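Changelog-adjacent note: as of this version, every example in the card shows the full chain rather than a window. The one below runs 279 residues end to end.
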Amino acid sequence: MHRPETLDEVAALLASTEDAMVYGGGTAIQILRKQGILFTDDFIDISRIPGLHDITVTDEYVTVGAMVSVREMEQDPRIRSAIPLASAAYSRVANPRVRNTASVAGNIAHGDYRLDPPTSLLVLDATVIITSIRGTRELPIREFFVDFQATDVAEDEMISAIRIPTQQQHRSAGRFMKFSSLSANDWPCASVAALATEHSGSLTVQLGLGALAPTSVYLSLTVDPTVGDQEIIEAALDLANSAIDPIADVRGGVEYKARIGRVIVEDAVRSVLKEVPRA
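Full-length structure tokens:
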């Protein structure tokens, strides 16, 4: 186990060490090892790197370091106030023990399509800050997930922070919903984050879908705010249907998951339409 004390040291290790992997909270790594799809024993512990535990809140953004825990995202009053939709999604991850250990970077690092937080990060248009020996680059979360359990992070790069725009709550409403067909702590059968925003005489409904396709899915539609709610809901369902492509597993078959997905999309959209302020 490598234990660097600066980001530069981490970047140098990633560039020079074959098969090395960043180790934060370790929850995702343990799952991958149990599944038999991760074999490296060469880890880089980033828990002592300055700044990676920091949360910075401004009027425009919330920036969270890679080692901020899922539990902090759930409970920090600044986050609950500035980005309540994200806080709600993080609050539904597994159980308190996992949320206390898991980090925000580790949660997205392996591109697992079933995870809850990416749905909210997609609709909030978050940006992933990525570090390597080449410097720092910014990657929109909507370009981050590229395939089944695959991201746009190279082997010699690490996630150092996530920057999330604050919700404009005076003219928007958000809702996160999930359905677990086994235990409440299990991976979801389907999840959705919905955000409705009124601006410049139009209404935009954004959706982030989890566990309903090989990657997390982002969808958006803009409508006339005077259109009836049911018409907007039907348009959102049509859009979701075009993207829903579930993977069958012990939590349900393809048709079952697709049906559950449509139900929670409808419920989430109906909820935000009731709450969003309209001119």
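Structural remarks: Residues 19 and 40 are 6 Å apart (CA to CA).
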